[in-house]
Input
Amino acid sequence: MEKETARIEAFSDGVFAIAITLLILEIKVPPAGTADLATQLIKQWPSYVSFVISFAFIGIMWINHHRLFTQIRRSDNTLMLLNLLLLLGVCVVPYPTAVLAQHLSGPDQRPAAVLYQGTYFAIAIFFNLLWGYARKRGMVEKTSESALRISVQYGVGPFSYLVCLLLVWISIPASLLLNVVLAVFYALPPQHATTVVKGKAKAFES
Amino acid sequence: MEKETARIEAFSDGVFAIAITLLILEIKVPPAGTADLATQLIKQWPSYVSFVISFAFIGIMWINHHRLFTQIRRSDNTLMLLNLLLLLGVCVVPYPTAVLAQHLSGPDQRPAAVLYQGTYFAIAIFFNLLWGYARKRGMVEKTSESALRISVQYGVGPFSYLVCLLLVWISIPASLLLNVVLAVFYALPPQHATTVVKGKAKAFES
Amino acid sequence: MEKETARIEAFSDGVFAIAITLLILEIKVPPAGTADLATQLIKQWPSYVSFVISFAFIGIMWINHHRLFTQIRRSDNTLMLLNLLLLLGVCVVPYPTAVLAQHLSGPDQRPAAVLYQGTYFAIAIFFNLLWGYARKRGMVEKTSESALRISVQYGVGPFSYLVCLLLVWISIPASLLLNVVLAVFYALPPQHATTVVKGKAKAFES
Amino acid sequence: MEKETARIEAFSDGVFAIAITLLILEIKVPPAGTADLATQLIKQWPSYVSFVISFAFIGIMWINHHRLFTQIRRSDNTLMLLNLLLLLGVCVVPYPTAVLAQHLSGPDQRPAAVLYQGTYFAIAIFFNLLWGYARKRGMVEKTSESALRISVQYGVGPFSYLVCLLLVWISIPASLLLNVVLAVFYALPPQHATTVVKGKAKAFES
Output
C-alpha cells in the first residue's frame, strides 16, 4: 500500500513542478528595435508581479500537499480521484492569474478578480474534500497532533476564501490583500498556523 | 528487476503529468479593451468544457496505468515498447480534444468526432496489448483476483469504444455521451466495474 | 552512492518525459470555417509522421538510457556532465525533426536532412562517451555479459550514423531509411542486437 | 524525515528538468519558401549559442542542487520555502537569456546584460541562503569535509557574480566571459573548486 501513495505523490509532484515552470512562458521578450529596452523591461512589471504571485501560490500549495501526504498512509480509488480534482485546481491557476494581470488596471477588474478569487475558493474546498475523506476512512492517525492541526488550518480555508471572493464587490485591493495574507498563513507550518487561528478565536470571544 | 518497473512508472508518471498540465496552455486570455470581460469569459465555455474533459480522461488513464503496474511485477524490452505505445496515445489526446472543441458547433462535427473517438478506440487497444503481454509472459500473478477483474474491465474496452466510434454516423451526442459513461466506468475500481459488466451480461441473457 | 545514480535517473526521466510530451504542441488544430475539416486533417499527414518518428526516437533513446543505468552502479561529477551532454542531444531532437518535416517535400531537403542526421550522429557519440567513461572508471562490472553486449551495440553507433549522414549527398530516402533501420536496431534488447552485429561481421568476412 | 528530503528533491528535479527542456521551444523553425534553408539555419546561430549556454547553466545548477542535498539530511518548512526561492531563480533563467540573445548585437546590450547578470547574482544569494540555513539548523554534518568545501565554493558566489554585474558598465564581453569562467568553476566538484579558491587567496597574499 505504501507504494500506492508514493506514486500519487510522484504524479502530483510532476503536475506541481510543470505548472510552476510553465509560468515563465507567459513573460514575452520585448522585441528588438522598437524602443529603449530598459524602459520596456520596466513597463512589464505587472507580468513580473503576476509571475511571482503565481509562483508563490503554486509553491505554497505544493508544500501543503506535501504536508497532507506525510500524514496520509493509505490510498484508494476515491482518494486518487479527489487528488485529481485538487490537481485540476492547481493546473488552472495560471489562467485566472494571467486574466487578472491583464485586466487589473483596466475597466474590467471586477470580473477578473471574481474569476481569480473563485478559483482559490474552489481549491480550498478541494483541499478539505481530500483531507476530510482521508480522515473519515482512517487513512490518517486521528489522534496525531499534526493531523489535528492540519484539520484546524484547512477548516478555516473555504470560509476565508469566500470572504475574499465577497470582498471583491466592496474593495478589490482589500480582497487581494486578504488573499496574500492567507497565502502567508498557509506557508506557515500547522503548529504556528493553529496558534494564529486560536488567537483570532479568542479575539472574537472577547 | 523491481527497479526496472519503478523507472517505467516514473517515466510514465512524468508523461501523464506533463500531458495533463499542458492542457491549460490551450485556453487563451481574452485581450484587454475589446469587449466586456465577463461576457468574453462566458463565451469561452467550450474551452473550459474541453479542458475539464481532457483533464478527466488523462487523469483516469493515469489511475488505470497505476492499477496495471501495481499488478505487473517484472518488465522486459517488449513491455517497455508497448508502454511507449500507450504513452503515445496519452500524449496525442490533447490534439483530437482541441479539434473537437473547435468544430463541435460547426458543420465539420463528424470528422472531428471520428478523430476523437478513433483516438480512444486506439488507446483501448493499446491498454489491452500491454496487459495481455504482461499476463502472457507471467509478469502478473494469473490467479490474483484483482488481475482477473482488470482483464474483464479492459477486455470490454476496445469493443465499447468501437461502438462509440460507429455511433458517430448515427448520432454524435449519443456517441459522446457513451464516451463519458465509459470514462466513469474506468474511473471505478475493478471490483465495482466487473459487477457492472456481469450485470450487463445477465441483462443480455434474460 | 546508490542514491546519486537514482537522482540522475530521475532527472533524466523528467527530461525524456517532457521532450517526448512537448512534441504534440507542434501539431496545430486546423482553424474552423476555412475548408473541409476531413481534407485539412488528411493534408497534415507530414506533421503526424514527424510526430510519430520523433516520439519513437526519444522513446527508444529513453529505453537505451535506462539500459545503461541498470549497469552503471556509481556516479561522479564527470558522469553527471556527460549525462547532461546526452540530455542536451535529446532536448534538441524536436528541432531538426520539425525542420525536416517542413522542408522534406521542398527544394531545401538536403540541408534539412544534414541537420537531422548530424544530430543523430552527435547523440551516438554522446552515448559512447557516457558509456566509455563509466566503463573506464569501473562504474560497470566489466565482465558482465550485458555490459559487453551494450559495448558492441553502442560501438557501431557513431559509424552507422556517420554513414547515414554521408548518404544524404547520395540519396536522401536511403539515408532516412537507414535511420529507421537503426532505430529498430536500438529498440532491440542488446542480446539480439549483438547477434545482428555478429551476423553482419560474418557476412563481411565471407 | 528522510522521506521529506526525498520529495523536495523529486519536486526540484521536476522543475529543473522542465526548465531545461522548455529552452528548445524558443528556437523557431525557419519558414519554408522564404530563402535558402542552409543560410537561414546558419543565421540563427545566436539562438543556438543562447540555447547551449542556458542549458549548461541550468544543468550545472542542477548538479549543485544535487550536491547540496546529498549533504542535507533533514528538512523543515523554512528550508522548503528557501528551496522554492532558489527554484524561482532557476525558472526565471530562460527569460533573461532570451532577452540577452535578442539584444546582444543591438544598441540595448547594456540593460540586457544587467538583467542577465543580476539574475545570476540573485541566484548565487539564494544558494547561500539555503545552504546557510541548513548548516545553522544542524541539517548538515558541520565537520564533514564535503560540507566545508561546499561552504567555501558557495561563499565566493555572491561576490563573484556582483563583480560580473558591475563589469557590465566597464566591458560587456569581459563580464560575460567571467560568467562562463564561473560556470566552469561551479561545474567542478567542490574538492577541486576549493583548491582553486585557496590558490587565488595565496595569489592575493603574495
Summary: The mean pLDDT of chain D is 83. Residues 2-205 of chain D form one domain.
